[in-house]
Task: inverse folding
């Protein structure tokens, strides 16, 4: 972790800034909130969640820590908001996956897309994994939101498969949740953070094949 971040920030403050605060252009509350989120995410990704304080984020934005706290009560609430925004963007991208393809292909595309998103995030920014652990250990709401949004997408795919005559499912919500649980080994960010990318891709294929088979011929009660 970059424990020298705050020290370096402090050393950049010249005496000419002493006793003065740079004037910030007026922003709406929503614009200010977005600006805080963008800055916090950049600092967390670059220096690590543990190494960055609210005061550091405020200094980057030339605002007081109190102004940051006005929008986000805690540092963990910042992580929750950052993660929620990322989840919403990911799920939005899932919705544009070709709806013209057969349901089994859409299911496979969904699983591989989510897996690749997490693998890429781990490789591109090592400190992202630290933020993910915060969302889990602090039991932040973003985890529930992620499950809800992905289950809704899986539900839509299964229902399409039923209409196509490919899937034989009566209790769609139950199977959608079961499919999410089965996919957790390849789409959960912690799982993708512990394994080789090639192994994850093969595992993803195998799990999707298993789910597809179960949806085509579900067990009789």
Result:
């Amino acid at each position: 972790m970059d424990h020298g971040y705050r020290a370096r920030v402090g050393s950049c403050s010249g005496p000419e800034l002493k006793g003065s605060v740079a004037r910030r252009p007026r922003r709406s509350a929503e614009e200010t909130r977005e600006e805080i989120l963008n800055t916090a995410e950049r600092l967390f990704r670059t220096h690590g969640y543990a190494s960055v304080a609210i005061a550091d984020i405020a200094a980057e934005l030339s605002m007081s820590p109190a102004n940051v706290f006005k929008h986000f009560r805690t540092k963990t609430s910042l992580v929750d908001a950052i993660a929620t925004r990322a989840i919403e963007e990911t799920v939005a991208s899932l919705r544009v996956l070709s709806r013209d393809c057969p349901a089994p292909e859409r299911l496979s595309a969904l699983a591989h897309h989510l897996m690749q998103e997490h693998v890429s995030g781990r490789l591109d920014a090592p400190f992202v994994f630290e933020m993910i652990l915060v969302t889990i250990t602090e039991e932040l709401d973003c985890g529930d939101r992620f499950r809800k949004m992905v289950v809704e997408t899986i539900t839509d795919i299964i229902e399409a498969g039923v209409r196509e005559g490919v899937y034989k499912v009566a209790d769609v919500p139950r199977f959608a949740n079961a499919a999410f649980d089965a996919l957790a080994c390849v789409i959960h960010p912690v799982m993708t953070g512990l394994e080789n990318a090639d192994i994850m891709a093969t595992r993803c294929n195998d799990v999707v094949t298993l789910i597809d088979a179960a949806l085509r011929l579900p067990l009789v009660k």
